[in-house]
Specification:
Elements: E1 5-6, E2 22-31, E3 39-51, E4 54-59, E5 64-68, E6 91-93, E7 99-111, E8 114-121, E9 127-129
Parallel strand pairs: 5-8
Antiparallel strand pairs: 1-7, 2-3, 2-7, 3-4, 3-5, 6-9, 7-8
């Protein structure tokens, strides 16, 4: 589906609202073909409201694509400096979930016919599983 990450320049105009950084909610993730422990994320920019005691999040438009720069070096034998084979049998590294701070970048992914620009974020992958 998403065969490669391409360092293709793109027009940043559609991402003007992310001039520096913005908070996004991860809505979904899908594994990148031929890449171990790397995902392409669907994110949505969120707006904050309320007070520090009762923060509210409001979705703000269409979902965008994002990639986690911490996953660039992930391989079958190394995820953030750890070997997945050293985890107990019912545990594994998974995609990031929840809210992340994203910034606009100059990468794109092949999505059918044309490259699609993506946002970037940097978060360690969680270990998932149960005893």
């Amino acid at each position: 589906m998403f065969d490669a990450l391409l360092p293709t320049p793109f027009d940043p105009a559609p991402f003007a609202r992310t001039e520096y950084s913005t908070t996004c909610e991860i809505k979904a993730s899908i594994g990148i073909d031929d890449a171990e422990y790397r995902w392409l994320y669907d994110v949505q920019v969120v707006l904050f409201s309320g007070s520090i005691d009762a923060v509210e999040f409001e979705d703000s438009g269409d979902e965008l694509k994002a990639i986690n720069v911490r996953e660039f070096g992930n391989t079958a034998d190394n995820v953030g400096g750890f070997d997945p084979a050293d985890l107990p049998a019912t545990f594994d590294f998974g995609p990031v979930q929840g809210y992340v701070v994203c910034w606009s970048g100059y990468f794109s992914v092949e999505d059918g016919e044309a490259p699609v620009p993506v946002l970037l974020f940097s978060v360690e992958n969680p270990i998932e599983g149960s005893c």
